[in-house]
Amino acid sequence: MLKAGVLGAGHLGKIHLRLLNQSEKYELVGFYDPNEKNAQKVAKEFGYKSFGSIEELIDAVDVVDIVTPTLSHYDCALKAISKKKHIFIEKPIANSVEEAYEIIKLAKEYGVKGQVGHVERFNPAFLSVKDKIENPMFIETHRLAEFNPRGTDVPVVLDLMIHDIDIILRVVNSKVKSINASGVSVISNSPDIANARIEFENGCVANLTASRISLKNMRKSRFFQRDAYISIDFLEKKVEVVKMKDAPKNPDEFALILQNAEGLKKQIYFENPKVSINNAILDELETFAKAIQNNTDPVVTLEHGTEALKVAHDIINSF
């Protein structure tokens, strides 16, 4: 078992602590939180060991799980890497692309592995259809959330939209050609609502919308490709796959047939992929343990996290 420690015992940090504690792949050593009052409360309530400093925690573990505010990701990562500790770092990987590149460089230099917490890659709905997404040419995503003060230290693009950016970059096999975006600050000092149009060199267009002041929560993505439409509800863990094929000469009387102006007939049919419910955060942590033990690449590499961060900053810069 790998000895693991968590930096940050806020809302998400406590979830990581609980899951690492129950995982069969890790031995939870403890945590560090700079807020002494909160650290004492978490230690007393859950029985986890609270360390007096970051350095003490890092020295006691094999894997450092960084669940701190984005602004401190870089410093925490450097301290862990310099002690040759593997790092799991929550998204976004860092506050700036330059910091992210430095993290990648040092991880290679010290021979440690790193994974970024883009948890939607482990969402069961996405996992059930990711192999069916082939060369999409139009993508539309909506990630809407009710207002929560947590996370408003960064623009909504880095808080919410970056999840969809990461997914899109993994399913579109092409480089970004251009980005047009707009953002509006309503409650925070940084944009709370954003829309971005990303054009890729292969012709694919992605239209992304994110809001953290919505009246309801929504996390949906729709992928349009030749002869198929795939819808993923990341929140409800549901998928919809609609496909088309050339209509048979003698279709079933209940078959849904479309005919275009040229007389070409297509049959529409539905697929219902099985969605196997999982704990996405536990899965991402445990696949990282496997990558360390088997010396393989993590599912979400530091490079992946940096690519998503770069596009996110390009969107912010185009406001």
UniProtKB/TrEMBL annotation:
InterPro entries: Gfo/Idh/MocA-like_OxRdtase_N, Gfo/Idh/MocA_Oxidoreductases, GFO_IDH_MocA-like_dom, NAD(P)-bd_dom_sf. Residues 155-216 form the GFO/IDH/MocA-like oxidoreductase domain. It holds the Pfam family GFO_IDH_MocA. Residues 3-118 form the Gfo/Idh/MocA-like oxidoreductase N-terminal domain. One of its GO terms (molecular function) is nucleotide binding. It comes from the Bacteria. This is Putative dehydrogenase.
